[in-house]
Amino acid sequence: MRLARLLAGTAMGTVLAGCAVLTPLPEPLTTTERLAAFPIDGAPVSAPVEIYWNDQQVPFVEAQTDSDLAVTLGMVHAHLRLGQMELARHLVRGRISELGGPLAGDLDKSLRVLNFGRGAEATLEMMPADTRDWLDSFVSGVNHYIANVETLPHEHRVLGIKRETWTAEDVIAIGRLGSTDVNWLIWFGMLDLRDRPDWPELWARITDIGGDSIPSIGAEARDQESVFHELLLGFAKAGSNAVAVSGERTGTGSAMIASDPHLGVFLPNLWVLAGYKSPSYHAVGMMIPGVPFIALGRNEQIAWGGTNMRALSTDLVDVSDLPESDFTHRTEEIGVRWWFDTEMTIRETPYGPVISDAPLVPSAGEGVEIALRWMGHQPSDEITSMLRVSQADDFAEFRRALDGFHVPGQNMVFADAAGHIGQVMAVKLPARPTTPPSDVLVSPNGMDAWANPVTAADLPAAFDPPEGYVASANNKPANAEVAVGWHFSNDDRISRLRELLSGDGKIGVADLEALQRDVYLPSAVALRDLLLGQLQRSGVTLTLDQDAVAKTLQDWDGHYDADSQGALAFELTGFAFAANFWSEEERALMEIGGRFDEQLGEAIAAAEPARVASALTPALDAASQGMQEFGVWGDMHRLGLRHPLSFIPVVGDKYVFGNVPISGSSTTVMKTAHGDTDKRHLTRFGSQSRHISDMSDPDANWFALLGGQDGWINSANFIDQFDLWLRGEYVQVPLLVETVKRQFRHKIELRP
Fold it and tell me: pTM to 2 decimals?
């Protein structure tokens, strides 16, 4: 959610700064004080509902009917994350100008063209009655809270957000925002490269390598374009680790599961923790604010997690030659704060909206018009699918439930109390051939693959594999008869997960905790050895400073610990070496295909030792200087949590929470992603939350959010899990109601 960068980069920031100055930070509130603000009387429930809260303000809802449970969850989400939910709603509806003023116009126009809510009405029409009742009840809970809470969140006052009724369509649209396709940013970034004479070779390399990097060639550094890029990046590159270990490997007879989603590092956290029980539902886990199901969690019998598949759910269709009669037009009004409202015309085709009309999408050339065909624009009912998952008792029911889950494609991991494990490809895909097309743009005549799409039932699944574990890390999934995607994460994380899980020893909760904090990077060690081996073969004599860095590299154990000199030396040396070894354009071309380190390693291995040494010796000098400035990896690599309001000029610093050394890197299991740099930096993307469940015990469920549960800036629970996360500790969220009643000290009772 990168509204923040827009606030930072436009002239209206000065005005917002004035608003913020006039809106001081609210007084701190304890957990008890926050809960006292919860509107308990006159709730739209049919019977009393009890909500138990722990000291981190994690709720457990006990309701007598399913509808009452959904109502209460809507109220809980609004209580904890209304400010965040409203920012998401304004983003997904292309209403940023209502908050940020006239200079946000191109962003709003681009979001309107993308139209995340395009399939919402049709989705509602296909919903079964029980799901529609659940969704409507959830929305009524959100609206009841908005109408009856006395004080609105700080964001409302600073940004001028008004009390406004929510709809079921809003909820579905927010869910679609989280379904953003990774291919968009990669392909959008390549459109203006198609006029290069070597374009066919570039495209072939991109699809052959299969990396997920975003190309930098031709990128235009405009403020709103940067916001658009960052916004889509935060969802499109959504990563994760997810593993399940069979009962035979745990020693208890029951399986274990561990998940840690990787998303943008910001406050509030993207996830909210909750547990609940009603006649039909009994589960605990992680929910997206404003979306009424547990995405990662467990019930009494099974647990589930997942990672983004990087599924190929989009085509960019060249509609330049379509007759005008195939285009439809509609006019939408854009409200603008401090200015006059504006209008825009949106064009659509049988293949989707004309994405080339979006101001922030790069041009593919004069006269080239492009439509976006995306599975997320079609009706699909992920809410029903995930509600059915939360009710499943075994793998067959789990897989059957996920057949209705279409976007975003997920590698869903399964574990159960009986000791079984499994993995399902939950997605709907066009039945494309496994051979890539010849261009990023396809012809309207090449849409046959969309006529017979495949779903989870048609794709490979794993159940009780002989290894005794399943693992997923945004890697290429199992081979299928159709193209699943072209742009997967490199193999660093999945290889390391397999290494940590392999062997004959028993695996316990402590092992899974250590796995989620693992920062060893074998590929970096291999690259280090290549560099030093070529240096030795060159026979070059090093200076004292160069030799000191080389020895630090040689002694490095491959762990990206915050206090590691070796990790710092490797990153500084690698950055300078690549700049010396390749020209700026060559390096940019390598980044297009992704898997940059792999390509660099191959180039080093193939190069003459003298050439490697000529680039490496000045890189060692640069690293020596950098190490004098920073000392250890954590001096350069930092973790800072920023609220979107932190980018407001003049007063933004009061919305920055923490700036601490952090372990990890872009490709370690504990992901703390960063760009290639030799400067002090903040990680922008990575391990944002953690979950572990031991299925031998209904109460053995542990979670940690990078930040806190409560979205209110002045709440005691806004950032109280930050230190827990840093220390690798967790919050227990039991499943059994009797345990909840013993452990959760706070209670609210809703009355009709």
Answer: 0.94
